[in-house]
Amino acid sequence: MPLKQRCGVLFLLTLAAVGAVYSGEGQAFTFSTLAGNKGYGSTDGPAAQALFYQPGGIAVDANGNIFVADSANDTIREITPGGTVSTFAGLAGVPGSANGTG
Description:
Elements: H1 3-14, E1 21-24, E2 27-30, E3 45-46, E4 55-60, E5 66-70, E6 75-79, E7 84-90
Antiparallel strand pairs: 1-2, 3-7, 4-5, 5-6, 6-7
């Protein structure tokens, strides 16, 4: 995978680059925080105050909501276009695979 693609994936998975600028392969990239704060945990609310614990993948729906697989919390988190983070499915710290609401 080219360096420029790896940088974008890294940013989206970690959700934690603050104002960093990277220049590689002749192209500059600017990174900024989308959601999350220093530290780790499972805190919902405004994006700048939210906490994640090992986010491991993302998906985006047609409305611009971003869904994050918050791996160590065993949850799927949602980030709205307005910048609010909420737990979409699962219960932080409780692993499982049963189907059901949330």
